[in-house]
Design goal:
Bound molecules: pyridoxal-5'-phosphate
Structural class: alpha/beta
Oligomer: single chain
Largest sheet: 7 strands, mixed
Shape: globular
Length: about 400
Amino acid sequence: MKKDTLIVTTGRDPEANHGVVNPPVYHASTILHPTVAAMEAAQRPDYTGTRYGRRGTPTTFALEEAVAALEGGYRSVATGSGLAAIVATLFAFLESGDHLLMVDSVYGPSRRTCETFLKKFGVQTTYYDPTIGAGIADLIRDDTRLVFTEAPGSLTFEMQDIPAIAEAAHARGVVVAMDNSWASPLFFDPFRHGVDVSIQAATKYIVGHSDAMLGVITANETHFGTVQQAAHSLGAAPGPDDVYLGLRGLRTLGVRLPRHQENGIRLATWLQGRPEVARILHPALPDDPGHALWKRDFTGACGLFGVLLHPRPKAAVDAMLDGLDLFGMGASWGGYESLILPVHPEKIRTARPWTEPGPLLRIHAGLEDVADLIADLEAGFARLAAAA
Ligand SMILES: *Cc1c(COP(=O)(O)O)cnc(C)c1O
């Protein structure tokens, strides 16, 4: 089945729910077992039913089934946030004395986990240039257990050659994980490109309406047990209402994301022609350094991209942003509404330092009429000029 059909059909069983179209929300902690034998059966590792609220209910299982089908993995496990999914994945494969290869353009809080928990627990992290490709082989050591990827990178949008990295890692028996939130399950097939474990910050496009926190880890058959055990041990289970919102959001992913893509590309193209703009960071644009990889491996782009301005005083950029009507300022992205945020990769990068002199903005193109969004930015540039 094609993805648009899977989005609508997977993780649903109306016959089991009185004909109701959507899976019901099960609120649960205790799960009752009628006999000792039934209780013992529920404790076996291969048991897939309900056992305890933290381990999921039929609502959770429906979301997990749907995301696993869309990502093309073996099975999925849901978590209480995207970050919980990332932390569980790191904890699943790393122990004291191990070495991690982490992409330098990784989502900031993922990096913080390496600098805090992993460091404290004796795991060494080497950050690598996101554009390293097959060159990752030179950084793999005997104690390397995991290569963590994210494409395009958070804030700076570098593409990664995932198949080349996976090939080099697998040649040394190293597991490959990917934060696949930017593409969502719709626009990149991680398992067909060599990834072993894929992470979705479902908070973003799967929920899609800025109203729930949710993560999903999907793994291949070899690694699913390890990942599921880590996620359950972490105890960061999602709440049933948030899982329901994830399932509900998922059903329209196939129509929302192409519109985010279209608005994003139209905004990016318009911005490219502005004299205030030095460069657009968006792999779907033909002159982006990551375009060839994006075109080879991805089937689309979401609405999130970067805008590098020519150097301007902070007060002028603040004046531009403060007066915007349609672009909200705030963390996260993937909802129906447009967002804009000044970002500072120069503060965190080490392997491939960010040295651009001008201010960097991150835009999330929402589902508004793009002409209104352009008019809002145009007025913002007028305020920038007046204040500069
Ligand atoms: C937001 C984000 C996350 C974290 O997701 P939360 O649900 O907010 O914890 C992870 N990875 C990327 C790339 C993100 O943008």
